Amino acid sequence: MPQTKKRPSHIVLRGPTAICATAVLALVALSGCGSGSGGMGASTSDTNATSPKATTATVRLQNIAIKPSKVTIQRGSTVTWQWLDGHIDTAHNVTSLPGGPQFKASGTRQTGSYTVRFNTPGKYLYECTIHPASMQGEIVVE
Ligand SMILES: [Cu+2]
Question: Which of 45, 76, 116, 135 has its CA 20 to 30 A from that of 109?
Fold first, then answer.
């Protein structure tokens, strides 16, 4: 008696089996689409990562000023600050302002240079904390 009832349950099992087969087909179709568009997407982002011209910008810390005070670069580029006020015994630093994207502060010094690579687009505001009134700068990373 229960055996006859099991037969319909076997038939019911064919339903999910058929659905599984459909799901597999769908997955194959999806994975086919996915690998195609995924490959396209990856190559597109690779192009974006490499095709903007990475550059090196130089900023002078001289006469208690930042020159140029605003620099625009492509992501992946570097900015090098040069300390040029050592001869007047004046030290500077470059320090991110709070509230925006940050980069590692240079520390205070009188000579030499400091280079930061910017990989993340954004508007980086900074200052020399010793001379904030006259030494404010901006790095725009595109
Ligand atoms: Cu300064």
Answer: 76
